Amino acid sequence: MEPTGVAERLHNKTILITGATGFIAKLLVEKILRLQPQVKRLYLLVRAGDQASATERVRSEIMQLQIFRSLQEKYQKHFSSWFWDKVYPVAGDVSLKNLGIGDVALAEGITEETSIIIHMAATVNFRERYDRALAVNTMGVKHVIEIASRCAKLELLLLVSTAYVNGKESGIVLEKPLHQYRSYDGQHDLDISEEMALAEAKLKELVCRNASEDTIRLTMKKIGTQRAQKFGWTSTYVFTKAMGEMLAYEQRSRLPIAIIRPTSTTSTWKEPFPGWIEGIKTIDTWVTNYGKAILKVLPGDVTTVIDIIPADTVVNAMLCVISYHLRSQPGLIYHIGSSTRNPLKIGELIHIMFRYFSKKPFVNAKGEGIKVKELIMPATMASFYKHMDIHYKVPMQDVARRGLSTTDELDRYNHLKREYNFTVAIAEVYRSGTFFKRRFDDSNMQRLVSMMNKRDRELIPCDTKFINWEKYLMEIHIPGVMYCDSRQATRARL
């Protein structure tokens, strides 16, 4: 007899999900409701000032989304009542103690009922203010752990991290914990309380000096980058997520904890329908700006494997961990990616982008199709900056020497400057991904997949081996990204 599967695992369970209005979280909520209509309750923690505001956010940002179309068709006029019978919005904030839940009775109800906690709340801005990133990405984990410790029926606390907490490491990256309270290389002590105190002291100093909001924001962003690089991480985002992992790992002996580390998430592959995405993510910055002929140069090694994974595959992998982790305990940490099972090289991605926009050029506001050329990929940062000097800085200097006396000359100078600054910014932000040769081992994840029963293999497929990248990118992801980009542009104009 086959072991019970994911649907049975979720039956009559109460689940707390933080960061519920995030991209992946929305898909997770939809999949749970579709997969197991008899789930008892989903507590969705959202940032809001009160319960009414939280309910409105869930209604407008989750319930009314197109991804719930199949459930709306299934329940028709009863969908709304059915949805609210299962979903309970919770006004709160992970950066605050008790998750910012002001209703004492509600907080007690959550801790009495909840069996599974899925912590997804995060600020994903690579260059977020240090104080904000610490509060959400690091201390948010601490506050979730405090709630989990009070949950009488807790079966699993699933922490969603990122594969890129692995710093600048090249080669095969294993599913192993970071050095506990140490720099990435393990050579220096890392004290989270000191990092918190440093951020608070600097913020207080800026306020006392009556610094402007812009000065405060830029200074705190700069400090975050400096602290991350000091300890061996590439950005404030991955540094603060790494510290969050450390806080969680410390509790492994007294709480049932699992940590998942997705790689770069892209649009849905199959469910609830192909190509759904919210916002421009990871490689999508390259896609949209290349299609508009803004991005023409990107430094990198064309043989470098870029690890992307469709959002619905991430959701399925999360459900696999929820269902099978406690049965095997093969490991605490699970990578969710494609670089080991089905590697995609950057050179292949660039060629696919060229083929797509050659066939389906982006149409600008004037109704003109934009012609693209193959993206230039200098093999080193030195050759990249040499190219930028020749094709941007020298022409800018030539135009400036002529005095910028005409509108055409001024427009050309500003155009070159904008394109130069944008291209350099993209190159610097993504250089760790375009040059570092690393693949994320997913042995722990594959061990869970091997345990799945036949039905679960169909319900929650999460093996990236079966993705045809060319077909997915050409027919699903790039069209989905360009549609999302056009909608954002439309909203910006309104």
TrEMBL record:
<dbReference type="GO" id="GO:0102965">
    <property type="term" value="F:alcohol-forming long-chain fatty acyl-CoA reductase activity"/>
</dbReference>
<feature type="domain" description="Fatty acyl-CoA reductase C-terminal">
    <location>
        <begin position="414"/>
        <end position="481"/>
    </location>
</feature>
<keyword id="KW-0444">Lipid biosynthesis</keyword>
<keyword id="KW-0443">Lipid metabolism</keyword>
<protein>
    <recommendedName>
        <fullName>Fatty acyl-CoA reductase</fullName>
        <ecNumber>1.2.1.84</ecNumber>
    </recommendedName>
</protein>
<comment type="similarity">
    <text>Belongs to the fatty acyl-CoA reductase family.</text>
</comment>
<dbReference type="InterPro" id="IPR013120">
    <property type="entry name" value="FAR_NAD-bd"/>
</dbReference>
<dbReference type="InterPro" id="IPR033640">
    <property type="entry name" value="FAR_C"/>
</dbReference>
<dbReference type="Pfam" id="PF03015">
    <property type="entry name" value="Sterile"/>
</dbReference>
<dbReference type="Pfam" id="PF07993">
    <property type="entry name" value="NAD_binding_4"/>
</dbReference>
<dbReference type="InterPro" id="IPR036291">
    <property type="entry name" value="NAD(P)-bd_dom_sf"/>
</dbReference>
<comment type="function">
    <text>Catalyzes the reduction of fatty acyl-CoA to fatty alcohols.</text>
</comment>
<dbReference type="InterPro" id="IPR026055">
    <property type="entry name" value="FAR"/>
</dbReference>
<dbReference type="GO" id="GO:0006629">
    <property type="term" value="P:lipid metabolic process"/>
</dbReference>
<feature type="domain" description="Thioester reductase (TE)">
    <location>
        <begin position="17"/>
        <end position="318"/>
    </location>
</feature>
<keyword id="KW-0521">NADP</keyword>
<keyword id="KW-0560">Oxidoreductase</keyword>
